[in-house]
Every structure is written in C-alpha cells, then in structure tokens.
Design goal:
transmembrane helix; 5-stranded antiparallel β-sheet; two-stranded antiparallel ribbon; alpha+beta
Length: about 400
C-alpha cells in the first residue's frame, strides 16, 4: 500500500513538472494578463460593478477564464492516452500489419505513433503541443480543441473591453491641432471620477494586453480551424500527412492502387462524435477503431509499412564534411542556415567530419536523417534529427543514392 502511494505521488509530481516548460509558462502568462487586465479595465474605467450590465460582464469574464483554464489543464494533465507497455493484438497474425516499437517493447496500435518527447507510443496521436507540454491524442483531443475555441472567444471579449476602455477614457483627452495630436493624461473626464485615474501606465498596460488578445485570437483561431478540419474527416494531422505521402508514393511508382482513408465514416456528424461526446470521454478504447464500409482495420498501418520501406529505398547517404555542434540556430553555418532553421521541436544531431548520415527528407538549407553508427543504445533509440545541408556531401559510390531525396520537393 505504501509503495502504491509512493508511485502515485511520483506520477503526480511528474505531471506537475509539465508546468516547468516555456510553453505552459507563456500560455498561462497570456491568459493571466488578458484576463486580469480585462477585469481591471471593466471594473475601474469602463463598466463598474454597480450596474447590471457591469455585473453580467464581470461574470462573463470570469466564466471565460474558468472554462479556458479547465480545458487547458484537462488537455495537459489528462493526457492523450498511451499504448500499454508490451501490447500486441489478440490475433497474433495481425502483428504482420503493425510496426514494432523497440522503446515501448510493444506493437504500435492502429493510429498510434511514438512520441520522442513523451517517450511513449501515443494513441491516435495528432501532434506534440509545446503549449501544453504534452501530446494531443485520443483522450484529450476534445479538451484541446475546446481550449482552441474558447481562448479566441475570451480574447475577443477582452479585446472589446480594452478598446472601449481606451476609447471612453481618451475621448475627451485628445485634442487635434494643425500638425499635432495631444493627449492630456492628467485630466479625468468622467463623472463620477474613478477611484484610480486612467493614467499613462494604465493606457500602456491596456494597449499591451490588447496586442496579446488580438494576436492570440488570430493564431489560436487558425489552429482551431485546422483541428476542426481534420476532426470532421476523422483524421489527425499525422494521418493527413500519411495520406499525402500515400498519393506521392502511388504517383512516384505509377501504380494503379488507390488508397482510401479507412476511418472517415462518411458523415461529418459521425466523425464529430468520435471526438466530442456529452460525457467528455471519447468513444472506444484507443486501440481498435470503427472503419468505413469496405475498408480494412489495418489499411492505414499497411500503408505506413509501405511508406517505411519506400523511405529506405529513396533515402540518400551523405558524409559530413564539416563539424556541427547540434545547435538549433548555428551562427557559424551562414545566415541562410541561421534564419531558415526548421520551426519544430524535432532534435538536431551533432556531426563530426566523416560521419555517415542516411537522409530521408530535406529543406533548402537543412536535412533530416539517421546517423549511421555501429553503436546501439540500450533503449533502442536511433540518433536522428536535423542538420545543415552545407555540412554534408552526397556519397558518390552508393547504390542506394541514385534516387532524388524524398521530401526535397515538399515544403513544411
């Protein structure tokens, strides 16, 4: 019993450590600044609590904050759900359709992917989100999407408060001349006079909060639109990319096969209910999924195996001609390399002159691949990541390098 309590406490402490990351720190700071400033502006200078409208407005601001934080922490601490360690399908013959994860010592269930950040295979993985410092997947997809919806709505309300506060407070303080505009911040034009006058610092704070609110509305609103687009098709961001690569593979080899995404149930409402339920608990167990009529349970995993084999065929071997420290934005590798560093949390790999790398995809000034080494790690991890293109050259005498680098024509 004591051992069980210790394990629970350790897991809780580990979950709390998710807050100690730049993503949650920035996200919670933006929420705190916008919420606090909206309440202060409304109560002191725009819509006092002694009016019915002011009281309703204040309650709505608190309501936005509570709902945003509730879904944010749900997405962070509930987590996406992980494939059990050592999992394998009930029918042993189905193992041939699945990839095996050496790190988790289990087969990857349909729609699951291994996250290098979480170090686990995540059920129905959409992406690893730095803002919640966790993956978005099977169990927390609904909470994450609701957070993306509520945050812009709350920011729109807050932005309205900021704009109206500055407008009402500055309306009688602004005087226009022939060639100048003057703002007299020392005069309070309001009857009755506010307890705390709207001074220069209050104006600067409101303007700063307005910028945060508008920026969050645009950025998070776009993410919400992207999420709803894939949810209504019962896909994830990763599965959309797999489908795109399937079309590229079929076109590249000029095969007559047709890849049909198996989990799109045909109706947007049916797809919507796969994520959002009244109970808040998603349907299913995250390991087996309903498929459209005529589709195979392992259609997607079979396509993944084909793409993995195709990647090995079309990968290109390179040799390092310069040392590279593994820095995210290396100043010594040129300005173009510095300013075009991939905007991703995927790792960079350090290179020493003479190292061999098997490149699988690339950008104009960066490449991604696996370092070829005789050393094997105990946990089965491969040494792979991004590195500057100028640090390597293509190996001339390699039978596997006649093909064009897969992914160079794709932009990320």
């Amino acid at each position: 019993m004591g051992m069980l309590c210790s394990v629970i406490k350790f897991e809780n402490l580990h979950e709390l450590k998710r807050l100690c990351h730049w993503g949650p720190i920035i996200a919670l700071s933006v929420i705190a600044i916008c919420s606090a400033m909206a309440m202060i502006d409304a109560v002191l200078w725009y819509w006092p609590l002694d009016t019915t409208g002011g009281s309703i407005n204040f309650i709505m601001l608190i309501n936005w904050t509570v709902m945003i934080l509730y879904n944010y922490f749900n997405a962070m601490f509930v987590g996406p759900g992980y494939v059990p360690i050592g999992w394998k399908p009930e029918n042993s013959q189905d193992c041939m359709y699945l990839q095996y994860c050496k790190v988790c010592q289990s087969y990857k269930a349909p729609r699951s992917h291994h996250c290098r950040k979480c170090n686990r295979c995540v059920m129905k993985m959409d992406h690893h989100c730095p803002w919640i410092n966790n993956c978005c997947g099977f169990q927390n997809h609904a909470s994450f999407t609701l957070f993306l919806l509520l945050a812009p709505l709350g920011c729109i309300h807050a932005a309205f408060i900021f704009i109206m506060t500055m407008y009402t407070q500055l309306y009688n303080r602004v005087s226009f001349g022939w060639s100048s505009v003057k703002i007299d911040m020392s005069v309070a034009k309001r009857d009755p006079r506010p307890i705390i006058p709207f001074g220069l610092s209050a104006f600067a704070a409101s303007l700063f909060a307005l910028g945060l609110a508008l920026g969050t509305t645009i950025a998070v609103g776009m993410l919400f639109a992207i999420q709803m687009k894939v949810i209504l098709r019962n896909k994830t961001s990763i599965e959309s990319w797999i489908e795109e690569k399937a079309k590229d593979r079929i076109q590249y080899y000029q095969t007559r096969e047709t890849f049909v995404f198996p989990y799109d149930l045909g109706s947007k409402w049916s797809n919507f209910k796969q994520v959002f339920t009244w109970s808040g608990i998603p349907e299913g167990d995250g390991l087996e999924w309903p498929v459209r009529e005529g589709a195979h349970q392992y259609s997607l995993t079979i396509e993944q195996l084909k793409q993995k084999a195709d990647k090995r065929v079309r990968s290109v071997r390179y040799r390092a001609i310069e040392d590279y420290s593994g820095a995210c934005c290396p100043l010594t590798k040129g300005l173009r390399t510095f300013f075009t560093t991939p905007c991703t949390e995927e790792p960079r790999i350090a290179l020493n002159k003479g190292d061999l790398i098997l490149a699988t995809r690339g950008l104009k000034h960066w490449m991604y691949g696996d370092k070829i080494t005789d050393l094997t790690t105990d946990d089965g991890k491969r040494i792979r990541g991004w590195f500057p293109r100028r640090c390597v050259e293509k190996c001339l005498y390699d039978s596997e390098t006649d093909q064009q680098l897969d992914g160079e024509k794709k932009t990320r």
